[in-house]
Structures are given as structure tokens and as C-alpha cells.
Amino acid sequence: MTDLTQVSSTREQRPFGYWLKHIDGAIEENMSRLFAMDGLNRRGWQVLNTISHGPVTVAELDDTMDAFLSADEPTMRPCIDRFAERGWTSTADDGAVTLTEEGRRAHQRVAEQTGVLRDRMMQCLSPQEYRVLMELLQRVATHLDALAVETPGQQPSAPFPSRESGSTGHSRPQSA
Hints:
7 helices, globular, about 180 residues, mainly alpha, disordered C terminus, two-stranded antiparallel ribbon
């Protein structure tokens, strides 16, 4: 028989990277169910929402969405093409993509549903906790971006703080 306190303790000790992947997967699953009604996926929603802020070229959209581009998905062009087929976007002669009236209605409908889902997903945090979480995640992202430009094999610019000096009282996991 498995001791539930042992399982809970093991789960709590998982590293930072595990929790990021777990949360991302849970967001993906919840958003996928929501977006299925409109024939969207999470990436499609992000593209639609970006276009809703004003005219954008494919190059600008790719720059905005660069964190999501990959060898399998090197551009957001196919997403824009699907929106155009649905009558949600139009492209001007200069390459600027905008939402059509139909696209604005679709965006408004999905934005309202997404807002409700986001509120539900964050019910476990107070507004202050959410702000702190966002600040911490942004700080880690900025730090990791800076580490990414260091030369391989280069020593860190600052030593890691000792476990005792951390402000949270939690030890840093050995792997992400």
C-alpha cells in the first residue's frame, strides 16, 4: 500500500522545470477544450489576439510569437491563412493583416470565454499573489535569457547563493 503523505512529499520536491511543464500542459488542455468550439488551438488564439491589437505583418507576428516558433512551426503564416479562409482576416497590399468584422466578432467571443477560464485557473491565488508570481517568473525568464548568451563552459558571473541565503527557505533543486 502507498503512503499518501510520502506521495505528496515526493510531488512537492519536484524541480522548478517539472512544475513549469505541468502548468503549461494543464493550461494547454483547458484552453484546447475551450477553443475547440471555434476550431482554434492555443497558438491560434494567441495569433488572433495579437492581430486584434491592430494591423501586423507576418514578420512582425513571427517576431512577437518567436518563443513559440520551432523547426516544425517556423512561422505563423499557416494560422493567418486559416483565418483568411474563415473570413476572419484580410491582408493589405503592404502585407498588414487585420481582423475583418467576422474576425472581430470571433475574437470578442473567444476573448470573453478565455477571460472567464483564466479567472477560474487563477482562483487559487489572491491578486497580490498573482502579481508576485508574475514578477518572479519574469525575473527568472530574464535571468535565464542572460545565461543563454554566456559562452559555453564560462563560469557564472555570480556564484549561486547558498541554500541558507534563499529568501523562501526552500532549497534549489539540483536540476530543472
